[in-house]
Amino acid sequence: MQLSVWTYEGPPHVGAMRIATALKDVHYVLHAPQGDTYADLLFTMIERRDHRPPVTYTTFQARDLGGDTAELFKRAVHEAYERFRPAAILVGASCTAELIQDDPGGLAKRLGLPVPVIPLELPSYQRRENWGAGETFYQVVRTLAGGAPRPAAPRAPGATRSCNLLGPTALGFRHRDDILELTRLLADMGIRVNVVAPLGAAAADIARLPEADFNVVLYGEIATPAAEWLQRTYRQPYTKSIPIGLNGTRDFVREVATLAGLDADAEVARISARSAWYSRSVDSTYLTGKRVFVFGDATHALGAARVATEELGFQLVGLGTYTRERAREVRAAAEAHGLTALITDDYLEVERAIEAATPELVLGTQMERHIAKRLQVPCAVISAPVHVQDFPARYSPQMGAEGANVLFDTWVHPLMMGLEEHLLTMFREDFEFGDLSPSHLGHAPSPRVDHTVEMSTTLLPGGGAAVAEMAVADAGVTLADEPAAPAPPVAAGAPRWQPQAEQELKKIPFFVRGKARRNTERYAAERGITDITLDTLYEAKAHFSR
Amino acid sequence: MTATLPTPAGCAVPARPEKGLPVLRERGQREVFCGLTGIVWLHRKMQDAFFLVVGSRTCAHLLQSAAGVMIFAEPRFATAIIEDKDLAGRSDAQDELDRVVGELLARRPGIRSLFLVGSCPSEVIKLDLGRAAERLNRRHGPAGVRVFNYSGSGIETTFTQGEDACLAALVPALPEAPADAEPNLLVVGTLPDIVEDQFARIFAALGIEQVRFFPPRRSAELPAVGPTTRVLLAQPFLADTVRTLLERGATHLRAPFPFGVSGTTRWLTAACDAFHIPSEHLRRTCLPMAERARVALEAHRRWLAGKRVMFFPDSQLEIPLARFLAEELGMELAEVGVPYLHRELVGPDLEALPRGVQLAEGQDVDRQLDRCRAARPDLVVCGLGLANPLEAEGLATKWSIELIFSPVHGYDQAGDLAELFTRPLRRRNVLTV
Fold it and tell me: B187 to each of A40, A180, B242, B413, how far by Cα in Å?
């Protein structure tokens, strides 16, 4: 058993739902008890989809367990086919149905439906959401595209000047916009997108996948198993680079140009983004060496680590992923920065790592956003798991040249602009100057209130006075183990601040004051210094600025 | 659980008249949460309690999606996720549970009550949480932690039944009130604190002095129960809780639920009757509140009177709310769906429904959607999985979940409750995009 507070990924059948919902005319019949339908609201509320996911749940109950749950399943498949007339049916079990071993695949096949039935074996007690999405997409591709004739010889590069975009799903982090951005980028290179899948593809489109010269893998977590099969079966090579950031996009263009038989140097030379100049402009000098902690799925974490260091001049102080399947790549990337990668899906472990790394910016998922909020560190979201606000109304890709611009804006906005930072130094002794948030957005850091509930999520979409009221009531309760309020508590035996040193500390800009305090105390504690004097403060400063 | 899901097997059973109300019983896909969801509000109500679901990643994901990734501090619920090795017998699930609970209590020394919550997988593999609770009580009891267990599994409970199962599990731990104790009132069902305080003031003004609420705000401060206890339900989904309280000698006061002016007045009347408080005193005490509630409702009546509303089954609040909308706001009822029909608990509300209203029990969501599309009601009360798709089809919706989380009971929330139904209509009126 694993004690879990929050999870980065749902169960594998939710991954299968993301594929089914992305496809146009495929229906998924899920053997599942009442309650598993909660997953529908991920799509209808978080992503604001205007249709229910194409999923039928059998909804078995305790008293069915002694009876015939298999019959219930067969009836559900039959009725779903009659009602929705899909071009293909996915069948599978959620975690509970897996235990009762009804064999949904075998049962559905015996119904003799006139459409392909794709059985999904998704081990719920071993695997997780992205793996489930990858496996489902692979099974869909294998079943629906497997009938095309196998090519006898390797393809000539650029034979049809076309490729497929693989990996975007329902509930994906900006998948919707990445497709558009990369389709434009490829069009500029004279390359046609044959099929985008699974998002927006019909079963008949999946059958056309083998017609393209090569595959573009947007999100390896989801598309790699299918892309590998297409490579083995139809000799379609696939791209490995992650087109996130300007440099990532250039590498991607070089790879694509080579696969398409184009002049790679000429194609790369045409790629530019405003973000490059913005990063070189003087206002951005303040970004130099900002400590950034990156955590997300492997694709986005790897992309973000590269952009953060190469394109914004940040210092990477932490890199991690919950995508265990791609741990090797992330470990290698972290090592290149002298770090040990954090490979975990334990939220509390991530929280501890962030706290220890004392970053000035966190690039993570919605969960890290909450950690950062608690630590009062600016944060931008770069990866799923997603939240309603990760589906903005505006065009907001993460990939390609426009993606690089979007990243520049979204990562820099939570920080303070260079012009502001220098004015702060000038004004900080003005008596009217308050300790505001280190952001031009002006949301002042509020005192920590444990158990405060943020209202803007799924089940509580509009917010309600009830919970707000409960949250206020909650604030009065302190469980002994709750993290302390912003003012760090003085532990017994901790070094004491002499008044003069304390005064001096207050002259340090507030947005680095906490770090200065922590560093000085650490410096003192490590040396057995009991009283922090003015000199200790500056010795520590010199020590840590090496 | 008791027979609280009494739908027969098979699909739609032909409507049959029952006390003048036809009931359509359906069996099919249910678009309703399981009982685990109750943890979302129970953990906030009892702030020294911790809820440990023994289940799968799906359970953890459900709770996270239901609560949202929205709590700053570490939440007071978690999931002990069953893994392959637990199923394959490579580890003893009871030992694993002991280890997980040990870790948890070490992390959270403020916990006074720990609820082990059963789930679909734990029920199917027959993991005995009762035995685990007994053992853990022996181990952690001396440190002041009480361990309870109940099932919130979807194969046994629907949505709000999770609270019923939780409270029923607490009842045996309630102290015994002596047989000659003063008559006392026990208000049962989670209410927001602000509403609870309002009701406490009203009961005090009425002269009912011994009033306790269950669940309490601190799980360690359990109210006593005995033969002089009168139980007044604040929520309509507490069948097992009531049954176990009656077994402890308490008396159940039959009343409609306190929604709107009439509902609240009749609810309070039931209490007054039991405590021999003259109705004139009730009338005088509550008149100003009832009056201002009536004024608040009047504004909403203009929007709602004559409009047709349809309820999809969700929280069991459907019948009391349908009563409120029909009786106090003049709405017409297109169809009132409930997960299960408990005639005893919702009887007084049921009796006040207009004759001929179509009730539906259980669910086959696709068929119900067909009926909804055919009926084209002016407002559909449904869960979050259905709301946006129905809006996209041009139907106005109200998410039922808000009715569970918002303060909606009593006189001073009557206007707010009505507002939840008018807002979607007003919004459609305002928008020109």
Answer: 35, 57, 11, 18
Residue B179 to residue A310: CA distance in whole angstroms: 78
Whether residue A448 is predicted with pLDDT greater than 70 in this model: the reply is no
d(CA B390, nearest CA chain A) in Å: 8
- Taking 60 as the threshold, does the pLDDT of residue A456 lie above it? no
ipTM of the shown complex = 0.92
pLDDT band of residue B8 (cuts 50, 70, 90) is: very low
Of A213-227, A530-544, B416-430, the least confident: A530-544
Asked which of A317-326, B23-32, B61-70 is least confident by mean pLDDT, the reply is: B61-70
- The whole-number average pLDDT for the span A472-496 is 45
Average pLDDT, chain B: 92
Q: How far apart are CA A248 and CA A253, in angstroms?
A: 9
Dump the DSSP string for A197-223. Answer: ESTT--HHHHHTGGGSSEEEES-HHHH
Record the tokens describing residue A255, joined without a space. 């790879």
Of A10, A94, A17, the residue nearest A58 (C-alpha): A94
- Among B48, B67, B97, beta carbon nearest to A459: B67
Tell me if A59 sits within 8 A of A31, measured CB to CB.
no
Going from N- to C-terminal start, the domains of chain B cover 35-157, 184-280, 297-431
Reduced to 3 states, what is the DSSP secondary structure of residue A380?
strand
Contacts of B123 (CB under 8 A, 6+ apart): A62, B151, B153, B155, B156
Q: One of A25, A40, A64, A283 is an active-site residue; which one?
A: A283
> Which among A1, A123, A459 has the least Cβ separation from residue B100?
A1
CA separation, residue A287 to residues A183, A292, A365, B325 (Å): 32, 10, 22, 58
pLDDT digits 0-9 by tens, A134-169: 999 999 999 999 998 998 888 888 888 999 999 999
Residue of A nearest to B59 (CA): A36
Residues of A in contact with B60 (CB under 8 A): 4, 6-7
Q: Which pLDDT score, from 0 to 100, does residue B6 have?
A: 36
Tell me the CATH class for B297-431.
alpha beta
**Residue-wise over A399-411: b if at least 16 C-beta within 10 A, else e?**
bbbbbbbbbbeeb
SS3 A136: helix
Quick one: angle between helices A298-306 and A245-259, nearest 10?
A: 110
Tokens for A114, please give them: 């006139």
Gyration radius (Cα) of chain A, Å: 26
Q: Do domains B35-157 and B297-431 have the same CATH topology?
A: yes
Which pLDDT tens digit goes with each residue over A399-433?
Answer: 999 999 999 999 998 887 655 665 655 555 555 55
A188 an active-site residue?
no
Classify the phi-psi angles of A376: left when phi > 0, otherwise alpha if psi is within -120 to 50, otherwise beta.
left
For A35, the 3-state DSSP assignment is coil
Mean pLDDT of A27-56: 96
- Which of A76, A367, A459 is closest, CB to CB, to B401? A459
Kindly state whether A2 is in contact with chain B, defined as any CB-CB distance less than 8 angstroms: yes
Under 8 Å between Cβ of A222 and A157: no
Q: Could you report how far apart the first and last alpha carbons of chain A are, in Å?
A: 45
Residue B194 to residue B407: CA distance in whole angstroms: 8
Q: Which of A46-55, A210-219, A479-488, B316-325 has the lowest mean pLDDT?
A: A479-488
What's the CATH class of domain B184-280? alpha beta
The C-alpha of B44 sits at a distance from chain A's nearest C-alpha, in angstroms, of 7
Cα B267 to the chain's mean position, in Å?
17
Interface of A with B in 380-409 (CB under 8 A): 385, 387
Residue B398 has which token pair? 């109200």
Architecture per CATH, B35-157:
3-Layer(aba) Sandwich (3.40)
For B352-383, give the DSSP string. TSPTT--EEEEE-HHHHHHHHHHH--SEEEE-
